[in-house]
Fold this sequence. Notes:
By secondary structure, this protein is an alpha+beta fold. It has one domain. The chain has helices at about 1-15, 25-45, 50-55, 115-125, 130-135, 145, 180, and strands at about 60-85, 85-115, 130, 135-140, 155-180. Strands 1, 2, 3, 4 and 5 form a 5-stranded mixed sheet that branches. β4 (about 135-140), α6 (about 145) and β5 (about 155-180) form a beta-alpha-beta unit. The protein is globular. The protein starts with a helix and ends in an 11-residue tail after the last helix. The model is unreliable at about 1-20, about 165-170 and about 185-193 (pLDDT under 50).
Amino acid sequence: MRSYCLSVICLVAVTLSGCATAPETKNERTILEDQSEFVLGMMKKQDPELDVFLKDAYAYAVFPTVGKGGLIAGGGYGRGVVYEKGAMSGYADVTQATVGGQIGGQTYSELVVIQDQAAMDRFKTGKLTFETNLSAVALQKGTAQHAKYRNGVVVFTKSQGGLMAEATVGGQQFTYLPASAADGHLPPPATQP
């Protein structure tokens, strides 16, 4: 029953957050940026070769926490920060849908490394998708040294907790919002009487 509830919560979160790629307030954006930098630092500590891999990449997106759950049908959601040529350029969210034998819930961090401008253009326009069970690599020491781009992308994951058994088919979809457009998510300033 607990897994079923987690699955429903996850699917509702995916549905409700579809148009909120960036956090709504400046404070929330700062927190997300700090979390992304912290998680990236932890990933680099776990695999020092990751730093070299990222320096050769065109861009990358850090999703500090992605939650997923399922019971036959499943879903997941995470929000992150995008960096192009080492500088923060915007925000992204990732949604995941799966169908098949699955039960449980899990949270993890995800790093999407983008090889070149063409792959980045696909990412920005929502045309970059992949099958999660086939494409993601669990980050361990030495993983980045042997990582190979597939369709211009490499995805590293780092488990945070939970347990999920699955034999599923599904994929991830990304939505991107430039940092300059994120201010449009702020509520209008209060007017003085």
